[in-house]
Amino acid sequence: METVELGIVYFIIEVVIFLILLIIGDKIYGKIKNSSNQRLNKIKTYFPEEEKDTLIQLLYMVMMGLLFIDVCIK
After folding, report:
1. What is the pLDDT along the chain (74 residues), one digit of tens a residue?
2. Whole-angstrom Cα distance, residue 56 to residue 40?
3. Rounded CA gap, 14 and 7, in Å?
4. What is the pTM of this model?
């Protein structure tokens, strides 16, 4: 029973951290969107499409690695 309670506590902590990061990201996005500097709104001028694809691939690799570690531990 103790492991179930511990799992619930960890899940609640993860949800709280996610919500905090979501609120922070929303505030930053709002400030960037409402800023007078229009260069920040044109992300493709300084962040090419290839870099975005590379970061997405890296994110997927990290997610697969974490899933593999999670499955192997259990």
Report:
1. 577 788 888 889 999 999 999 999 999 888 887 877 776 667 677 777 888 889 999 999 999 988 888 777 76
2. 21
3. 11
4. 0.51
